[in-house]
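FORM 12-B: Structure-to-Sequence Request
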């Protein structure tokens, strides 16, 4: 059984901001451009990948986040209760995409930490540490952006209803967690 070590400590709860790590969730990075790539992905995921910049597609089971014109992150919507680091969807996509050179499928589950941030002052914290203008972003459910937050590369996904998923590389997660904790305490 894998040891899913959390990168954060507990939960942050200050001034209406609640932050917690969502773990474990499967995260896959997909890259491809060919028509057959999109056909195989649609068939296997039972959803279309978003093709418009800074958007996402959500199904009951998965979320596909646009990262670039030929790159997406696929994330499970629920915590994965597994006793292994191998995911069936990863195997299927690898066989249908990577093995036949239509694109690439890479498991980035352990590379990224997923934080869920709730509260009405989320964007005040983000604005204090990011050059990105979140004014329009906050009103568009499903929007996503890759930006810098306190000098750290992050992916931000707006789930709507004042809920945001933030993806950060594991090696920077604790530092970002401390910064968010400090920023939330000062609101």
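FORM 12-B RESPONSE
SEQUENCE OUT:
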């Amino acid at each position: 059984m894998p040891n899913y070590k959390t990168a954060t400590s507990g939960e942050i709860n200050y001034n209406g901001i609640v932050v917690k790590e969502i773990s474990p969730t499967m995260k896959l990075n997909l890259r491809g451009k060919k028509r057959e790539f999109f056909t195989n992905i649609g068939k296997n995921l039972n959803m279309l990948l978003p093709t418009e910049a800074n958007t996402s597609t959500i199904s009951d089971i998965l979320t596909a986040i646009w990262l670039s014109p030929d790159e997406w992150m696929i994330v499970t919507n629920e915590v994965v209760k597994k006793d292994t680091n191998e995911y069936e969807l990863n195997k299927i996509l690898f066989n249908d995409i990577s093995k036949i050179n239509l694109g690439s499928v890479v498991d980035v589950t352990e590379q990224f930490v997923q934080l869920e941030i709730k509260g009405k002052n989320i964007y005040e914290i983000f604005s204090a540490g990011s050059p990105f203008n979140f004014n329009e972003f906050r009103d568009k459910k499903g929007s996503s952006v890759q930006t810098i937050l306190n000098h750290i590369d992050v992916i931000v996904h707006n789930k709507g209803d004042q809920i945001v998923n933030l993806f950060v590389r594991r090696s920077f997660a604790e530092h970002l967690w401390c910064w968010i904790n400090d920023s939330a305490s000062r609101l």
